[in-house]
Structures are given as C-alpha cells and as structure tokens.
Amino acid sequence: MPDQEVEHNKDIVAIKDWLSKQPHLPNDVEEVLLRRFFTSCGYSLERAKRTIDFFFTIRSTAPELFCKRDPWSPEIRRVFEITDMLPLPYKTPENYKVFIYRLNNPELDLFNFIDAVKTFFMLADTRLTEEDDIPSGEIPIFDSANVSLKFISKVNLSVLRKYMLYTQEAIPIRLKQVHVINAPAYISKIYALCKPFIKSEVAKLVKFHEPNSSTLYKDVPQELLPLEYGGKAGSVQQIKRYWIKRIEAKRDWFLANDQNWSVDEAMRPTNCKDDRADQVRDLPGSFRSLALD
C-alpha cells in the first residue's frame, strides 16, 4: 500500500538519522541492510535500533570471524572446495528463501570450523547488502550425509556460541523452518552440542529427516532444489559457482569491512549497553577435546 510504503521510508530515514548520531557505531551502512533490519524486526523502529547495535557489537567482539576476510586466501578457498553453501534461486509460495548447506567431502581433516563459519558469514553479508528483494522468511536445509561423529571434535564451542547468538539475535532474517536431511542415527549427539545455545522458539522449527526419505517435500517443494536433489534449480556446481563469483567480486568490500564496520566501545553512550554482548566477551577461548557419551 502506497501510504504504508511512505511511512516505512520515513522510518528508514529515521534509522539513518539515529545511526549518524551514534558515536560508537559505523555510519556507512547499505540502505538495503537497514531495510532488512526494519522488516525482520516487525517494522518496530526501537527493536530495529537495538538489533542494529547488537549486530555491529557482536561482530566487533568476534574478529576471528569478521576480520581478514579475503575470498582469495587459502583458508577461504579450502572452504569453497569442501563445502557447498547454496542460496537457492527460487522461493517458496510463501516467499521464503531456501538454502542448502553441506560438506561435500567426508574427509574432516580438511575441515576448519572457524574458517567455515567465517565463509558462511561472508556469504550472508553478500546477500544482505546486495539483494533488494527481501524474502518473507528463510529456510536453511543442512545436509548431514557427510557428517560423522568426528565432526564434534572439530567444533570450537566459543565460536559455535557466537554463531548461534549472532544468527538468532543479530542477523536481520526471519527464520521460518530449519531442516536437517540425511540425518544419521547419531545426529542426536551432534544436536546435543548445539542445543544449549538454541533458543526455544528456534528449536521448535527444527525437523530431522532420515536418509532417502521424502518428508522434506511436505514443507519445501522439491522443484525448488538443485538437480542432485530431484529439483529444477540447476546443479549444485552451477549455483555454487554463481555465489563464489559474487563473493569474489566483493573482495575490496570484505577487506575494508573490519575497519568500516568496527564499533568504538570507548565512545559508546552509557545508556545503550547490551548485556548480551557481555555473554560473548566472557566466553572461554576454545574447546579442542570433547568427550562422546
């Protein structure tokens, strides 16, 4: 509706004005990203402001994930090689964006958890700052076919917690469903690692699907998926190459981003502290050895 669009545009102007007056936050932020915050926060101006502040704050407390992000670095190239991170080209009838994430190589000696999460967020930043078509929701599909119990020993719990906090409370998306397909019998052990960090409302969205089952298609039309999954969205390699090229084309932006989007805590006004940021700062460094029950 035209009147509503005019009001929303006024709110975006208000967000820009507010951001310009925050001495601790970056000011050079893409308008499409601000629109995503406003939309994902239910068109609440105050909620959008709080979320924007937390978005930049948590990034500044996680340099291992948001600094030195060169798409041409050997670490990122390795993630490109051994994982498939695929925003799919078509949306559901409800206007939900669908994604598939999977390891394409079962040899976990090549897998680095921190590098994988860093690359995951590079893909997210590319989408969030460049795509004007904002979906009504998002549906990630995690294909666990190549995930063994050894995966647990690869997980850095500090980074996992930051990932969970950022994706559930900071990133401007509206999660509608979460699917784990080709789930092995031991998936409960891996899920148990994540469960303490998953909000109850998100946990209710998670569905597990056994290998060779068709239960996913009750929620996600099969034709939206890549050819390898019986769909019509093109091959995994075609979709993957498209997104790698987009990330590579954004290289200069990534290399400057850790400075451009940094938060100056010394300049933060006393009335805009966020206790959630302390949860991140107080995290222990890393956990390299985890016992399997």
Automatic annotation (TrEMBL):
SUPFAM superfamilies attached to this UniProt entry: CRAL/TRIO domain (SSF52087), CRAL/TRIO N-terminal domain (SSF46938)
Residue span(s) of domain CRAL-TRIO: 73-237
GO molecular function terms attached to this record: phosphatidylinositol bisphosphate binding
Signal peptide: none
Family matches, as InterPro entries: CRAL-TRIO_dom (IPR001251), CRAL-TRIO_dom_sf (IPR036865), CRAL/TRIO_N_dom_sf (IPR036273)
Pfam families: CRAL_TRIO
PROSITE patterns: CRAL_TRIO (PS50191)
Gene Ontology CC: one annotated term: membrane
Gene3D superfamilies listed in its UniProt record: Alpha-tocopherol transfer, CRAL-TRIO lipid binding domain
SMART domains assigned: SEC14
Highest taxon listed in the record's lineage: Eukaryota
Name this polypeptide is given: Alpha-tocopherol transfer protein-like
Gene source species: Papilio xuthus (Asian swallowtail butterfly)
